[in-house]
Amino acid sequence: MSLSKQSRESLLDAILSITDKLGKLENAIITDLYIQVDKESGKLTIFDDDDRTLAEANIAEWKDMPKGQTASFEKPLRSELTQMQKVGLLDKINILKPYSITLVDEKKETIVDLAYIDDDTLMLDKELLKGLDEEMDDFLKHLLED
Q: Which pTM value belongs to this model?
């Protein structure tokens, strides 16, 4: 499920508003950000290690989502975060690196890591890794033939 333009803008506004809020927190040591989606209301909440709400957004497409349908918002979230990371928006968040952005359930238990932000490390997803074994086998075969 892809997000509407309005939902994408709401998500972008929520991510960008984190920079302002983190700058105002004194003596806060934050190592990760967490995203929680209320499946009944479609409300997305981003919070820190101390359960302080940093941002909220309403995503109409996720309202009344049946239980067990986490993939319906995991893929669009990962996609949007990847795009934000590519253009450097996630680098503007005032937090020490490395940090991760994790999708959690209503009990705040990890569902999946959506993004890992570090200057030297890139988190690869399953789509990017498809076929890697075959490519490496072909490379090694050609290398040994020479």
A: 0.72
- HSE at residue 99, side-chain half, CA atoms within 13 A, is 18
Q: Which two tokens stand for residue 80?
A: 């949007």
Q: Give the DSSP per-residue string, the chain.
A: -PPPHHHHHHHHHHHHHHHHHHHH-TT----EEEEEE-TTT-EEEEE-TT--EEEEEE-GGGTTPPTT-THHHHHHHHHHHHHHHHTTSGGGS-SPSSEEEEEE-TT--EEEEEEEE-SS-BPPPHHHHTTHHHHHHHHHHHHHH-
Residue 114: how many other CB atoms lie within 10 Å: 22
Q: What pLDDT is attached to residue 142?
A: 83
pLDDT tens for 46-99 read 998 888 899 999 988 878 676 666 667 788 888 888 888 888 777 777 777 788
